[in-house]
Amino acid sequence: MARVIDLSIAIGHKDKACIQTHVRDDFVLKMIGTNDAFDLMHLDEVSVRMPDILEMNITNALSHGNAAMCEGIVTLKDKSVYSFCFVVKFVNTAKHALIKSGQIYIIKKTIKY
Q1: 77 by DSSP, 3-state: which?
Q2: Does residue 10 sit within a domain?
């Protein structure tokens, strides 16, 4: 669970070096609800397309077998708020297995103050 949380934070911070420590060379990241899918060679495109995150709160994380997920809320610099769920698949169930794929689900929240 800690590894999927660390990867979520690295993606949120656009930290390519940290991302690469958690994933395989053939890693693919899919943005559900769009036609976007990125591999390691194109992570810079993710950085350009992703808005800057002001705050990220992880509210839940689970793992089972070779899969894990974390979910939470991100607040962007423009103050818009999104719920997200990041689901990953590991190469195998070993403790230090690399992540081979990930899917991010994002939904904009409407908050009334």
Answers
A1: coil
A2: yes
Pairing outcome for strands 99-108 and 23-31: parallel
pTM as predicted:
0.83
CATH of the domain at 90: 3.10.450.50
Q: Is residue 19 part of a domain?
A: yes
Mean pLDDT of the chain: 87
Interval 49-93: pLDDT, tens: 677 889 999 999 999 999 999 999 999 999 999 999 999 999 999
Q: Which long-range contacts (CB under 8 A, 24 or more apart) does 12-17 make?
A: 12/50, 12/53, 12/56, 12/74, 13/53, 14/46, 14/47, 14/50, 16/43, 16/44, 16/47
Its domain, for residue 38, covers 2-108
Domain assignment present for residue 85? The answer is yes
Say how many domains are in the chain: 1
Tally Cβ neighbours within 10 Å of residue 6.
16
User: If you ran DSSP here, which 8-state letter would residue 4 be given?
Assistant: H
